[in-house]
Amino acid sequence: MQPWGFIEVVGYVPAIAAADTMTKAAKVELAGTEVIGGGYVTVAVKGDIAAVRTAVDAGTEAARSVGQVHCAHVIALPSEGAEKVLSLNIAD
C-alpha cells in the first residue's frame, strides 16, 4: 500500500493552493478532497514516501500563504484496510 499525505485547511482557496502545489512539487497522485464541515477541507495525495513528504511540505507552505492550515500528516506505511475509515477513494 502506498504512503498517504494529508493537509487539512480552513477554506476552499487554501485547499486549491495545497492540491495544486502538491501535484506540481512531486510525483504524487491527488487521491481526493473532502469537505469536513465548519470550513475545513482535507486534501489527500498518495505516492512513494519521499514524494509524499515533499508534496505535503510544499502544499502546507502554499496553503499557509493564502489561508489557514489546520494540520498536515504523512502516513508512511498505512495498514491494510485503513482506507475503510476514509470517505476518500484512495485505495491502491
What's the gist of this structure?
This protein has helices at 12-25, 49-66, and strands at residues 4-10, 28-37, 40-47, 68-75.
Describe the structure in your own words.
The protein has 92 residues and is an alpha+beta fold. The protein has a domain at 4-43 and 53-76: 2-Layer Sandwich (Alpha-Beta Plaits), CATH 3.30.70. 35% of the residues lie in helices and 36% in strands. The chain has a 4-stranded antiparallel beta sheet with strand order 2-3-1-4, covered by helices on one side. The protein is globular and about 35 Å long. The mean pLDDT is 91.
What tags apply to this protein structure?
single chain; 92 residues; alpha+beta; Alpha-Beta Plaits; four-stranded antiparallel sheet; 2 helices; 36% strand; globular
Strand proportion, as a percent range, falls in 35-45%
Please report the number of helical segments: 2
How many E-type strands?
4
Low-confidence stretches: none
Distance between the termini: 6 Å
At CATH level 2, the architecture of one domain is 2-Layer Sandwich
**Helix-and-strand structural type:** alpha+beta
How is the quaternary structure best described?
Answer: single chain
Taken from the alpha-carbon principal axes, the silhouette is globular
- Quick check: average pLDDT? 91
Task: Identify the strand order in the major beta sheet.
Answer: 2-3-1-4
Task: Write the H/E string, N to C.
Answer: EHEEHE
CATH superfamily of one domain: BMC (bacterial microcompartment) domain
Sheet bearing the most strands, described?
A: 4 strands, antiparallel
**What is the name of the CATH topology of one domain?**
Alpha-Beta Plaits
Helix content: 25-40%
Q: In CATH's first tier, which class of one domain applies?
A: Alpha Beta
What radius of gyration results from the CA coordinates?
A: 12 Å
Keywords: Bacterial microcompartment
Organism: Pusillibacter faecalis
Subcellular location: Bacterial microcompartment
Protein name: Carbon dioxide-concentrating mechanism protein CcmK
